[in-house]
Amino acid sequence: MKAILFSIPLLIVFFLHLISVGRINDLSFSNSSFDTVGLKDEFLKSPVLSAEESIKRMILEDGFKIEIVADEPLLSSPVAMLFDEKGRIWVVEMENYMPDTLGTGEDLPTGKIVILSDKNGDGRMDDRKVFLDSLVLPRAFSFYENGILVAESPNLWFYEISNDKPVSKVLVDAKYAEGGNVEHQPNGLLRALDNWIYSAKSGKRYRKHNGKWLIERTHFRGQWGISQDDYGRLFYNNNSENLQGDYFNPGLGATNENQPRLAGFSESIIKNNRVFPIRQTPGVNRAYMEGILDDSLKLLNFTAACGPVIFNSKLFGDSYYGNAFVAEPAGNLIKRNILSNSGYVVNGKLAYSDREFLASTDERFRPVNLSLGPDGALYIVDMYRGIIQHKTYLTPYLKRQIKARDLSNPLNFGRIYKIVPKELKRSKSVKYIDDKRLVQQFESSNGWLRNKAQQLIVDSKNKQFEKPLRDLIKSSENPLALIHSFWALEGLALLKKEDVIALLKHSDWAIRMQALGLVPSVINKEYYKEFLAVFRSMLVQNDALSAPYIGFLNAFIAKYDPLDARQLLIDLAKKYPNNSFTADAVISNLAKKEAEFQKELAADTSTVISKRLKKVIDDLSKKSESTVDVAKEYPKGSSLFRSICQTCHGADGNGINGLAPPLNKSDWVTGDKSRLIKVILYGLAGPIKIGDKVYKSPEISGEMPGIASNTSFSDEDIAQVANYIRNSWSNKADKVTKESVSEIRGKYKGREKAFTEVELNQ
C-alpha cells in the first residue's frame, strides 16, 4: 500500500479534474467529457513550446534573468545534472519512463548519461557526447575518484573513466533500491562535506576505504533530491512538504534500530507549504478535493516538492546566500525560502508572502532538480513534459485527460536553464578549476567551488596536500576555509587527534560543531580517554549546544570503555532531562538496553527523556518474529508489499515519518476486512486515527492512492497483499479471499477518488 498520492517531482501526477471547489460533491468521475468549468481558454490546451517561447511564459523575481544552457535536440528527459572540473555538464536522461499510459517498453534499456560541452564559449552547450547508454531508468550519479557512481535501480554501480569512456564496471550495492516502484526509489547520491555519499529516499551512505566500498546505515531521508549547507547538514523534502533537514552531522545517531526517528533529523524546516502559481493548475492529483485548489483553480500547497538546493553563492547578493530553493513541477514554479540558524537549530520562512521566485504559465515546464554551478548561478533541470504518472496509480480518469489534451507527447524534450542577475553580461563557458590552486578555492564565496576542490583533493590521495592545507588553517580567518581544510585532511587520512581536540575548545560554535563531527574519524583505543575528558569538561561548562553531539559520540567511547560511557549517558540525561535532542541522542546508544537504562536512570516519568524512553520500549513490545513464513504463504503479497508499500510504510511496517503511518498493530489492517480492501483498492485521504493517535500532515502525507484501476493487479493479488500485511510483524488476522475483493470491486465500480476515514467508519 502506497502511503501518498502526490507523485515525486520526477513522476508528476496529473489528475486533470477541471472543477470548481464549490462543485466537488457534484463531480461525476465516470464522465468522459473534458470538464472545463472555470478554466480560462488559454489553459484549455498545453502547447509544446520551444525553450525560448517557454521563457516568455515565466515571471522571475525582479533583478534576475533566465538563460538557456541546453535544450533539445541536445537533451532529452533530463532528471539530474553535475558539473565536472572542466565546466562540462553531465546529465542523467530517463528517456523510457512511461512511453504511454500502459508503460509499454518501460523496462527497455534506453536511459543515458551524456556529457554536454560548450565548444564556442558562448555559455550555451553545443556538443553532446554519450558517456553511457543502455540503462534502465537511471536516476542519479556522483563523481568519485577516477570514476562515477550510477544509480540504476535496484543496483548502484561504479564505472572507472578513461578518456570520457567507461572502462570497467563494479557492483557497489545490489540493494541500493531494495523494494519500491519507480516512483519511490533512492536518488541523489550527494557527496557531502563529511566525505560520505548520501541519497534521498534511502537509509544508506557510501564511501570507499582502502579500495573497498563501505555501506553504512544512516537516517532515512526525503523523497526526491538532496542538498547540504555550508556545515554539511543535509536538506531534502517529500512531495507535500516544502523543506526538511537535519540539525546535526548526517553521520551521527543512526545506531539504534529500535528508534525510528530522532529529534534533529528529518525536521520540518519550512512549515509553510503554500505555493503561488501564476496559471490555473487543475491538473494535480487531488484537484477534486476541497482545499487543494483555490477558487481560481490554482494549487494552494506543495504537491510535488523536489530537487531542493541550498544556494551558498554570493552571485545574487548577501541576502540570497544560504537560501533554500525548492522546485514544484506540478505548480510550474520554483520557491525561495530564507534560512537562519539558532545554535544547532535551523529555522526557515517563505521569502515572499504572495508570489514565487519563478513561476510559469507553461504547463509543461517541469523543474525536477536544482543545482548550484561553478559560476555561482542557479541551474534548473526541466524535464519538460505534459504528464508523467506511473502506471501503478494511473486511473481511467487520468487516461481520458491524457488523450483529450495530448499530454503524453512529446517524450524527447528537456532543458537546462540558469538564473543570473539581470545586469550580468551573457556568461561565457565556465573555466576549468585550476588543480594547482585547489586549496585556495576554500576561501571562495561559492560553495560549489569549495566542495569540488575538497572532492578533487580527497580523490587525488596526494599526501603532499597536507602542508598547504595546514598552512591555510594557520593563516586563514575564514571559518569555511578552516572547515573544508579539516575535512580534506580527514578524507586524506591525515587528520590528527590533536587537530580535533584543539577545535573542540574553539569559541566559534560553527567550528566546534565540525570538530564534534570529526571525532569518529580520529578516536581510537589509544586516546579515547582524552576525548572523554573533553566531553566531561563540556558538560561541566554547561555547553548545551554540544550536549546532543556528546550523546551521539558516546557510542565511540563505549567501544573501549562501556562503564565510563554509561555514566556519561546518565550524566547527560540528568543534566538535560527535558531537552528532546539530547534525550534522543542518549537513546541512540541504547539498542536493546532501553528498559535497563530506564530503571537505572530512575527519573521523573514526566521528563522528556522518560517519555521518549517509554515510547521506544512500548514500540518494541509491538515487534514480533520474522515474516519469512508469511512471505512463503503469500509470495505475491510479499512481492507487492516490497514494490508498492514498503518505501512509505517501512520494511518493518512501523511507518516512516513524513510519508506514512504504521501498518504494524494497526486496527485498519487487522480489523474489518472490507474496510482494508477498500483502502487498498481506492485509497484513503487523511487524517487517520490509529489506536489513540491521529496521523496527519506533515507527519504523514495527505492521501494514499488506490490501485483499483491498475489492470495488472488481479483480485488474487489484492487478497495476497492484504493477507501479507494482516499477518506480518505483530499482526494476526483472518484471511481475505479474492471473492471478497471481487465483491468490493463490483460494488464500487467506477469509483476513483479516495475514501475518507469518516466514510469508511460509517
* End-to-end distance: 22 Å
Number of helices: 21
CATH superfamily of the largest domain: TolB, C-terminal domain
Tell me the CATH topology of the largest domain.
Neuraminidase
Strand content: 15-25%
Low-pLDDT sequence parts: 1-35
The CATH class of the largest domain is identified as Mainly Beta
CATH architecture term of the largest domain: 6 Propeller
Number of domains: 3
Number of strands: 31
Mean pLDDT: 88
Give the helix/strand class. alpha+beta
Rg from alpha-carbon coordinates: 26 Å
Largest sheet: 6 strands, antiparallel
Fraction of residues in helices?
A: 25-40%
Q: What is the general shape?
A: globular
What does this structure look like?
By secondary structure, the protein is an alpha+beta fold. It folds into three domains: 9-421, Neuraminidase (6 Propeller); 523-621; 628-761, Cytochrome c-like domain (Cytochrome Bc1 Complex, Chain D, domain 2, Orthogonal Bundle). Strands 1, 19, 20, 21, 22 and 23 form a six-stranded antiparallel beta sheet that branches. A four-stranded antiparallel beta sheet has the order 2-26-25-24. It has a four-stranded antiparallel beta sheet with strand order 3-4-5-6, with no helix packed on it. A hairpin with a 2-residue loop joins strand 8 and strand 9 (155-162). Residues 1-35 have low confidence and may be disordered.
